Amino acid sequence: MGGIMTRTAPLEVRRGNPPDASDRAAALTPRRRLQLALAGLWVLDGLLKLQPFMFTKSFAPMTLGDAADGAPGWLAGPIHWASGIEQDHPVGLMVLFALVELAIGFGIAWPRTLRPALIGCIVWVPFLWFFAEGLGGLASGSPSAFDGAPGASILYGLLAVLLWPTKSDHTSTESVAVAASGTSAAPGTSAPSSEAARFVGGTSAKAIWIALWGLLALLAFLPYNRDPGAFSDVIAGNGEGAPAGYVSVLNHATAWAAGRGGELGIVFGVALVLVALSVLAPRTGLVRAGMVLALVLSALIWVFGEGFAFWPLGRRPAAAVAPEASAPEGAAA
């Protein structure tokens, strides 16, 4: 039987030949693809921190000051202290922050440094969540899911825990090395599905999903998030520094949402509840529908609620976005 290749490994082994594109694609399990997506987000965050306007003394009070708005003294005090330090060293600290996030991203992307990079992510996230996001606005007294609560960085930390590498991830990586070396794997070394061996367990993963989206739904149903201007005011504040085309989109969205905060809040909250409960659905199709709805809601929040997060400032005045929609009646624009 020496002429028959062993095919118990996830990849078909071709003796003496490197793996082709299909081999490499087969090694990318759904879990590994999500790890690479998380790596891409960290790399993107690091690159955004290298934009020229972030190396100015005005950037720290503009961003960290916003994080302290409405926060209690025990949170606002440390944030203002950190803002002062960043004002004194705007270039050095921003370069350091960018390098840390780029290192986390590239570390997650490279299999050999995956675990240390995920640990770095888990350690770095609380720092960002506290100082840069002010606990995602949860301590401000008026947190809004549409405005970014509970904060993007805490979601990165949760993903790092959920995507911790399992034994099956290691086996999939080894299978590529086996194929590249032209040797056959030993019988019985076939890896189980990575989706069946999650680090925290399927039940815990569902609990985390329900808790996260349930929290967002709870925030959406709070009275102040259903005020007539709850959505239009948030949208109107995202045009500073944005290109004219995007400002035009925000203007139309602001005009459409003006006075409809109550209705939009209920629809938004119900959609968040459906996402939270979708993982309990008995049919796979319903679970997938919940995932799609989660992606749609996340995109809407990112585009209209957060203004693409770190859009370069200074090209357009803030008043360019529907000033008449947010100003009191009769006031000059």
Could you explain how this protein is built, in words?
The chain has 333 residues and is mostly helical. It folds into two domains: 25-166, no CATH class; 200-333, no CATH class. 61% of the residues lie in helices and 0% in strands. Helix 3 packs antiparallel against helix 4, helix 4 (73-88) packs across helix 5 (90-109) and helix 9 (202-221) runs antiparallel to helix 12 (261-278).
What keyword list fits this structure?
333 residues, mainly alpha, disordered N terminus
Structure summary:
It is built from 14 helices and no strands. It has helices at residues 21-27, 30-48, 59-68, 73-88, 90-109, 114-132, 152-162, 167-181, 202-221, 230-236, 244-257, 261-278, 284-305, 323-326. Helix 3 (59-68) packs antiparallel against helix 4 (73-88).
Secondary structure topology:
Elements: H1 21-27, H2 30-48, H3 59-68, H4 73-88, H5 90-109, H6 114-132, H7 152-162, H8 167-181, H9 202-221, H10 230-236, H11 244-257, H12 261-278, H13 284-305, H14 323-326
- So what's the overall shape? globular
Helical content stands at 55-70%
Give the CA-CA distance, first to last residue. 84 Å
User: In percent, how much strand structure appears in the residues?
Assistant: under 5%
Mean pLDDT: 75
Taken together, the total number of domains comes to 2
Q: What does the main sheet amount to?
A: none
Can you write the helix and strand succession as a string? HHHHHHHHHHHHHH
Query: Which regions have little confidence, pLDDT < 50, spanning 5+ residues?
Result: 1-16, 172-197, 313-333
Number of helices: 14
Total beta strand runs: 0
What structural class do helix, strand and pairing data support? mainly alpha
Rg from C-alpha positions?
24 Å
